[in-house]
Specification:
Blueprint lengths: L5 H9 L1 H5 L5 H13 L1 H18 L17 H49 L9 E3 L2 E2 L5 E8 L4 E8 L6 E8 L4 E8 L6 E7 L6 E8 L4 E6 L9 H13 L6
Antiparallel strand pairs: 1-3, 2-9, 3-4, 4-7, 5-6, 5-8, 8-9
């Protein structure tokens, strides 16, 4: 850049834009070219400007509007719709959270009730039922096997009978005998052959008044019989059970 003043250099540098755009006349263009031949600084700047000028050459003038750019006419409606959708989504999430909280609350209530119920059962003293009284059964028919137990109730006597070997499909009647020798019906059942059948039958006869047990066919033939030992009427099994239950509830016994 020898022999070129700073003012001349600044002048030609400012003309580089017009040079690459082809806006200089022939004389100006020749003078600037002569300056470029001896100025490396302007040559470097020219190399930076030329790509920009090339891009400007591809611009479509019709696309450059004279008026100020404006947003799309439906921008407001689209924005409001997006906000409404976001609000509805948030409302649905809130309702879902409330439903989950309700379900968890309901489950917690059920669990609490279950724990209370379990605790209540744990606090209830264990009590055994009325004692069973074994009965020595006389087997009067061949091939018949039977076991019997009695339970003394306030309303009568319950008989628990397990028997096998009776003719399948035939009906049999169980009865208890009272002190007068009369039969008090206790129930009926159907024989199942070799398969054991378990029956629980009740008679309206207090245990202390029962003297015997018998099973007969519908024709009156005796199949099984047993004599019952005399029962002390002063304190029956039922009264003993009631006394024991009261003591358990009072905490005097372990159950």
């Amino acid at each position: 850049m020898d022999g070129v003043t700073s003012e001349n250099h600044r002048y030609w540098r400012e003309m580089l834009g017009a040079f690459v755009l082809g806006k200089l006349d022939e004389g100006q263009r020749a003078a600037l070219q002569a300056h470029l031949d001896g100025c490396e600084e302007c040559q470097a700047e020219l190399r930076e400007i030329e790509p920009v000028a090339a891009a400007l050459a591809e611009a479509v003038p019709e696309r450059v509007a004279d008026e100020e750019p404006r947003p799309p006419a439906d921008l407001m409606q689209r924005t409001i719709a997006i906000i409404d959708q976001a609000r509805r989504t948030e409302d649905e999430l809130q309702r879902g959270r409330r439903r989950r909280m309700f379900r968890w609350s309901a489950l917690a209530a059920v669990a609490a009730a279950l724990l209370i119920a379990i605790g209540s059962f744990a606090l209830v003293p264990k009590m055994t039922g009325p004692p069973l009284e074994p009965v020595a059964v006389s087997e009067t028919s061949p091939g018949v096997e039977a076991e019997a137990n009695l339970i003394d109730h306030t309303w009568g006597t319950e008989t628990i009978l397990v028997v096998s070997g009776l003719e399948e499909g035939e009906t049999y009647k169980l009865a208890l005998r009272n002190e007068d020798g009369a039969s008090v019906p206790s129930g009926a059942f159907i024989g199942t052959g070799d398969q054991p059948v378990e029956c629980r039958m009740n008679a309206a006869l207090l245990r202390e008044d029962a003297t015997g047990l018998e099973i007969r066919t519908t024709e009156g033939d005796l199949v099984l019989a047993a004599d019952l030992p005399e029962k002390d009427s002063g304190q029956s099994a039922v009264s003993t059970y009631r006394i024991r239950a009261a003591k358990v509830w009072a905490g005097q016994l372990d159950g």
